[in-house]
Amino acid sequence: MEGLIALELTNVGRLVAHLPSRHEQLEAEASIDNLVPDTIVSARGTVTATRVVMRRPRLRFEAVLMDATGRLDVVWFNGTYLREQVQPGTRLRVQGKLRRVGHKFQLANPSFTILREDREPEEAAARIRPVYRAGEGLTSRQVERAVLAVLGRALPLIEEHLPERYRKDRELPLLPEAYRMQHMPRSFDEVGASRRRLAFDELLLLQLGVHMKRAHLRQSLRSPALRWSAEIDARVRERFPFTLTPSQDAVVADLVKDLTAGTPTNRLIQGDVGSGKTVVALYAMLLAVASGHQAALMAPTEILAEQHEASIRSMLAGSRVRVELLTGATEGREGLLPRLAAGDVDILVGTHALLTEDVRFASLGVAVIDEQHRFGVHQRATLRQKATGGVGGGPGLPDNRTPHVVVMTATPIPRTLAITLFGDLDISTIAGLPPGRMPITTRVVGPEQRDGVYAFVRARLEAGEQAFIVVPTIDPGDAAPEERLEDVRSLVRRLEGGPLKGRRIAALHGRLKRGTRDTIMERFRAGRIDAVVATTVIEVGVDVPNATLMVVENADRFGLAQLHQLRGRVGRGSRKSACVLIAGERVTDDARARLEAMASTRDGFVLAERDFALRGPGELFGTRQSGLPPFQVADLGRDLDLLKLARRDAAEWIAASPRLARPEEAVLLRRLLKVHGASLGLGDVG
Ligand code: ADP
Ligand code: MG
Predict the structure, then answer these.
(1) Can you give the pLDDT at residue 568?
(2) Total of domains in the chain
(3) Is 397:388 a contact under the CB 8 Å cutoff?
(4) CB of 277 shorter than 6 A to ligand 1
(5) H or E segment at 645?
(6) How far is the CA of 201 from the centre of ligand 2 (A)?
(7) CB-side exposure of 153: number of CA atoms within 13 Å?
(8) Which of 268, 273, 540 is CA-nearest to residue 407?
């Protein structure tokens, strides 16, 4: 029971919703003397002896299993790690193919379950067994028994939310049936059919939510139609210290089309690190200002906000556009807010601080969110509500007004996936980098070359350049000793005492106060620090043109997206940059592939596609970062076809029934609001 509580399986609904992580074919158990050679057999017994055989080429672990009827020899090749778990006295259930070896029988590399007391009753008949995530002293078999105990009563209570016709057209089993097939499958076909149903449900609900939101935006909300003319365009471009690339121009064209219409823009601009998204966003903001409205730019950190403000201010120097900064650290906030509300500020740059309730605009025309993956979907919704001074209308303004929203991300999401997932966003991509970018040399080295790496770092620092050195942990002891991970504190000490003696080194990590962190970055940017030893806190958009070196320790421990973001911190000035990835001592094949990918290309989109191919969209360029709810069943790598189907269906469905208000949609709507209502801000829709 405690185990069930620990897994949060505290009511019948949760128990039934706790789906098996996989299913396995279970053969009926037989006594050892009844096992039939050359077939898949299953037996249980007590281990009476074990030994490790170290003879090459194949190290192996052998055990003797006895029951009342006889003796079975079991061998696991390369199984020496099993010696801790499997010892004389251990009771095991084994399953595998029984072979004749000489005059004896042997079971090679069987799957096995360690039997604890009597928690695992004998499997008398062959069947498909669901395997549950267990833990906390609870076995999969115990979860299974708890589920089976309630399943009969629970299933009739599960309401179907799909209309009958639709469900049949799509060949989807009934919802209660699908749960039954997961927990008590009669065949692997049932496992597959029910998985498809449940995965499709997850995808369809999300797509319906996203399309519903979009329909609501388009139909009932209005944004100001901004003015555009060749003259305005020329005036805006005059402010930029460079000519836009064709790719930036194409995105600007998308934006102009969006912003000059009265329907709210909801556009995602994705572009690699350094691709020049800011200036494109500034174009949109200046269109708002030219039309007599205001614009806001929200960045995830104070450093970034300040950087944006400084560069925007310098581009607009001598113009009439009034730019202000608002972060948690801003002094004189009391003076600023009334000016903002009166329309005496044109562009407000800031952090989350922009979202606080007392921040009111006279007329917010364009809201830009930088590094969107750092913010949740919620925050996008909150900023949207600020059109006219908070929720509801300002004086004399209709309350269905909302700003155009432009979000930017350097987290490349494979295009197919992005289009399908972000149903509520239109997407523009800035391809490539602006011209004149210096190349970054990337090298992957082993730990034995570390001395050479730091000698190289020293030489570059002495030549007046600066370095980032990134490590996975902050303090010694943050990771298990056998992991041998570098940490900020030890590395700073070592470098100061040896390879980088006499250089100015600072530590930068998440356990420092934000103010301290900002001061360090500021000093680094001003050239008063030569190298920062940091965790990935420096991952996001900081611009230090004089930093030419990025060294990553234990580089195999970082994801591809992270490595790519880190590398993007250098190569921003006029000098040649280098990125050195120092691998740890034991590198998995997966990690090796990541490091090789890094060395082979600088293009974030190529990397994203490769990562996607390698492991699906999981953690890295992933959906979690994008503020999307994770799925329990659906797997975006494997279920892309289902996702496309769900997206198409959802689009048609919402077009025909924008509020899902038909009686046969009642259960569906209820479920949709429950799952996505809050995160998609559908409260005002349903
Ligand atoms: P990101 O897309 O990562 O936010 P930024 O907007 O910070 O990139 O731009 C990176 C750098 O490239 C900035 O220093 C910016 O001034 C510069 N830049 C942007 N567009 C161009 C261009 N068309 N030509 C030359 N430099 C550009
Ligand atoms: Mg940026």
Answers:
(1) 86
(2) 3
(3) yes
(4) yes
(5) helix 640-656
(6) 36
(7) 8
(8) 268
Give the position of tokens 């799925």.
631
Nearest CA-CA partner of 285 in 385, 393, 403: 403
Q: Is there an atom of ligand 1 within 6 Å of 409 CB?
A: no
User: Which tokens sit at 215?
Assistant: 């329909």
Spatial distance between the Cα atoms of 672 and 668, rounded to a whole number of angstroms: 6
- Which domain covers residue 352, as residue numbers? 230-260+276-409
534, β-bridge pairs:
470, 508
How far is residue 346's CA from residue 296's CA, in Å, rounded to a whole number? 8
SS3 401: strand
328 within some domain: yes
In a domain, 2, yes or no: no
Mean pLDDT, contiguous 10-residue spans, the chain (686 residues): 57 84 90 90 94 81 93 88 88 91 86 77 83 76 86 90 94 96 95 96 90 82 94 96 95 97 89 88 97 94 85 93 92 93 96 88 93 59 62 46 87 59 74 82 93 95 95 86 86 93 92 84 92 81 83 91 86 87 88 90 79 54 45 79 90 93 93 80 55
The full length of the chain comes to 686
Q: Give me ligand 1 centre to Cα 267, in Å.
A: 19
Expressed in angstroms and rounded, the spacing between residue 433 Cα and the centre of ligand 1 is 8
In angstroms, rounded to a whole number, what is the distance separating the alpha carbons of residues 355 and 164?
Answer: 44
Task: Answer yes or no: is 192 within a domain.
Answer: no
Rounded to whole angstroms, the Cα distance separating 386 from 539 reads 29
Domain boundary among 104, 125, 146: 125
Measured from the Cα of 279, ligand 1's closest atom is: 6
**Would you say the CB of residue 314 lies under 6 angstroms from ligand 1?**
no
Q: Is the Cβ–Cβ distance between 337 and 358 less than 8 Å?
A: yes
Could you say which of 69, 90, 125 is where a domain stops? 125
pLDDT in tens, 222-240: 899 999 999 999 999 999 9
Ion ligand 2, residues whose Cβ is below 5 A away: 541
What is the Å distance from ligand 1's center to 524 Cα? 21
Q: Cβ(490) to ligand 1 under 6 A?
A: no
Cross-strand pairs, 114: 92
- Does ligand 1 come within 6 angstroms of the Cβ of 545? no
Q: How far apart are the first and last CA of the chain?
A: 39
Does residue 409 contact residue 422 with C-beta atoms inside 8 Å? no
Neighbours of 119 (CB within 10 A): 11
DSSP 8-state assignment for residue 665: G
Do 450 and 343 have their domain in common?
A: no
pTM above threshold 0.70? no
Please confirm whether the linkage preceding 57 is cis (ω < 30° from 0). Answer: yes
User: Sign (positive/negative) of CA torsion 196, 199, 202, 206?
Assistant: negative
| Angle, CA 149 vertex, CA 145 and CA 153 arms, to 5° | 150
Sign of the Cα pseudo-torsion (114, 115, 117, 120, in order): positive
Q: Is the CB of residue 106 below 6 angstroms from any atom belonging to ligand 1?
A: no
Give, using CA atoms, the residue closest to atom 3 of ligand 1: 274
The CA distance from 236 to 68, in Å, is 89
Task: Give the residue, by CA position, lying nearest to ligand 1 atom 13.
Answer: 276
Using the structure block, give the residue that is written with the tokens 């919620």.
Answer: 378
Q: pLDDT for 450-471, tens place per residue?
A: 999 999 999 999 999 999 999 9
Of 76, 84, 67, 69, residue with least CA distance to 106 = 76
- Shortest CA distance to 625 belongs to which of 422, 473, 420? 422
| Ligand 1 mutation target, pool 244, 270, 272, 279, most atoms within 8 A of CB | 279
Q: At 451, which CATH number?
A: 3.40.50.300
- pLDDT tens for each residue of 526-583: 999 999 999 887 756 567 889 999 999 999 988 887 888 889 888 877 788 999 999 9
